[in-house]
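Standup notes
- DV: blocked on the single-chain target, sequence here:
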Amino acid sequence: MIIPLSITLAIQILATMAALTVPVLAPEAARTTGLPAALVGVFIALVYVGAMLSTLASGNLVGRYGAIRVSQACLLLSALGLAFAAVGAVWSLVVSALLIGSGYGPITPSSSHILARTTPAHRMGFLFSVKQTGVPLGGALAGLAVPPLVLLSNWQGAALAVGAACAAMALIAQGVRADFDADRDPRRKVSLGGVLRPLAQVFAHRDIRNLALCTFFLSAMQLCLTTYLVTYLTVEYGASLVTAGFVLSLSQFAGAGGRLLWGYAADRWKAPNLVLCLLAFAMAAASLITALFEPDWPLVIVIAVSMVFGATAIGWNGVYLARVAQLSPPGQAGTLTGGTLFFTYFGVVLGPPAFAALVGVSGSFAAGYAGIGGVILLVGVVLLYVELKGKR
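- DV (later): unblocked, structure below
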């Protein structure tokens, strides 16, 4: 159980770091390219367009080639995407986002396929949450490592260095492929009908469908935090790039701790839906407070709020993924996870650009955090109503 958890966690960390490297580089890249830093939201949206499409194909790809082989291909796509990002042109950034997204989409379904086979049912919430700490840890690593890499070379060199790390992880994963891909079926066909089937399966399971629709909004909140926090803190709060990256990394570490805590709570209370409801209220409050940041606020308060924001807005994923795996028929966890992630990633596609549009209209990143906080507050009210209605 330790080996599959370790390898899937490491792959998740590198894939997430690749996806968040460009947002961390955005202020410096904007200075040298002349592109508005707020357009990083469009970049992230394109990343998740690629992820939306590739995650639907992940079930068939994992079935035919194996979860580790698919993960290796994903890491190499991320590395290639970062190489295109280093070119610094609009067209290359579009290609970069789509390549990174295509690599990011199948990572979680692949790991769910492995963990569903190796994890006892009563420990799924916690162990899936442990694996999902790879997302905030990858974000923390981006926040900690990328700014110093920029100082050592330039923003292009930092992007290439992260890409090289992804390629190295793909090579390391080869050592466990024989064991973890033993259930692959080389005769399995990959077709358009097979790609669309996960969506039909999601809608055939009411509880899984409801989870998928819920994560549409929660994922939008998560990516608005991770995409814009560095730029918000540098542009409006007045922090340096290194300080803003450090705050982002602390929010990501808090998200990792939150994932463990919420996963444990969901297993202990046997109430994953209630946990998601409470998290919606908490992340809404944190977002609204973030919108109030002023340059004269003590850094320690900004850090504390950002860590609460990270613990909640980043901490929900493990609870959700474990619940999908628990509700899925035997052998279908990867396929149904891919189907639900289509909706999760769709929230990311729409969320950051909507945030960017609000910033453009208002001229303030604070307005963006206030807007998304209000939306999630309404989501929390709806989740609470559904939870109370279900217990009548």
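- Follow-up: The chain has a mean pLDDT of 86.
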